[in-house]
């Protein structure tokens, strides 16, 4: 079936009205405010733990908005082709449930949880057809009864697929390095792979009296007209046993599988309504199952970001730093610096670099267990540890919580990081760590904290060609 000029003009007019409605309603702005507060808090946590910031909160906000806009266009097109529809009151109900879930736990803010819960509520209301309260409650009950839950679950499945692709694409770059309290009170390094994206969506209006027929065939119905529905998708997992790239790849594959299963159940429910409750429960349990299984996987794994007997494990590398230029990667082990073997003490790296203030030679063990030899001139203003963030010492005094922040912590900018008491760790008294040395060196060199990649300068020549050996 071809799309006529009249149909196209009606769709464009409806799109303009829906866009205007989105701009005049608070829902998209709430999503943006949440993203801003979340990114700002992540930067504060990085400064608290490693004394520098790996991510710029302003840049991450724009990344989330830009990615969300692009993803929103693609998901909206897919939803229109499938025939996903929603009414104005349904949009309000979805957001009311989303905000309530947000108060319970931040990851519940995602669309799949809201639609899954509304699907369960609709199933319960079907057993009480005479229940029709008056006032605002009655309007909400009517809106829930009239929701096309299978179609909205199909949309949730599409969003899971998009989330999987974004986790794989952006997850490793957005991961936040953490110092965590591990087994037997020893501190270990880890990452939180966590991100959120706001998507402005445009869905079809429900088919009915006074609604034009769609000029293309759909699986789930829908009428000629559009309504706006801003949504938030996101993912959060903690890892101490593997690199963020590997964790993101695993999570992405599992999200794709969950999205495919949920889409199949939603399409079956659209044909056979008794399956709607099963599909709604799947929307809730599949996402939670991923979080639970990821946590179980971590509990069974050994800590990866700990120092070996010989060498220093790299937790992270500052963007634009000498270490990044040399090709040093998270998870690699610094074996020797300027001919001096490193034995797990963070202060050795700083001392070894100071022995040759104009040039450095490094032996680094990569993930395959092979050694690579690097060399580079040291310039004025270079980071005094070359931009390497080392795994924490076992007796590091500041750690982050394993649980992700709640909405109160995000709004109030509480990082959750705490200073450990001497009795918390069954290890010798704390040695001076690389992070504390970095802070001290930075304070001696300049009155303010320098930008990432250039705190704690080492003395050296003004500029020369760097080289890799």
Automatic annotation (TrEMBL):
The chain crosses the membrane at residues 20-40, 61-80, 86-104, 111-131, 151-169, 190-209, 215-235, 255-272, 278-296. Residues 434-448 have a biased composition (Low complexity). Pfam families: PDZ_6 (PF17820). Gene3D superfamilies: 2.30.42.10. Residues 417-469 are annotated as: Disordered. PROSITE patterns: PDZ. Residues 311-368 form the PDZ domain. Residues 449-460 have a biased composition (Pro residues). It comes from the Bacteria. This is PDZ domain-containing protein. The keyword Hydrolase does not apply. Keywords: Membrane, Transmembrane, Transmembrane helix. SMART domains: PDZ.
